[in-house]
Design brief:
It is built from three helices and eight strands, in the order βααββββββαβ. By secondary structure, it is of the alpha+beta class.
Length: about 140
């Protein structure tokens, strides 16, 4: 079973506006022969097509990046995760889960039901994991 994090998605008209603006900037920089700005404008154009997903599964915690046909996973297995903190106030009415691996932290926002499912999965997958609530902080 997989649980997906809630991410803010850009509206298609905002993506289109950024794309049109970046294409205009590219055209202007080519016309002015300001070659140093072209790589920056190309990165802005690529950012319009970038997608990201937060996934929690029995294998671990994964951030899935997609750009056109290519895909990249950044996965932490459950045995690598040392702490899991739950914060229901900061992302209310949803739940914010802080996954810790050493000094690194990943923050996922999920529905309350998915948050409970992830906590149960974490206890089952890694009994050594430190699970805490951040209610009073």
């Amino acid at each position: 079973m997989r649980c997906y994090g809630i991410l803010r998605q850009r509206k298609p008209r905002v993506k289109l506006a950024f794309l049109l603006l970046a294409l205009c900037m590219l055209f202007l920089e080519i016309m002015r022969q300001q070659w140093i700005y072209i790589p920056v404008v190309l990165l802005v154009i690529l950012a319009c097509f970038f997608q990201k997903e937060h996934i929690v599964s029995p294998e671990g915690v994964d951030i899935h990046y997609r750009l056109f046909g290519s895909s990249l996973h950044s996965c932490w297995a459950w045995d690598e995760i040392t702490t899991l903190h739950r914060d229901s106030q900061k992302a209310a009415p949803n739940v914010m889960l802080h996954f810790g691996k050493g000094i690194n932290t990943r923050v996922f926002v999920m529905t309350p039901q998915d948050g409970r499912t992830v906590l149960a999965l974490a206890k089952k997958a890694n009994p050594q994991i430190h699970i805490a609530d951040m209610e009073g902080r």
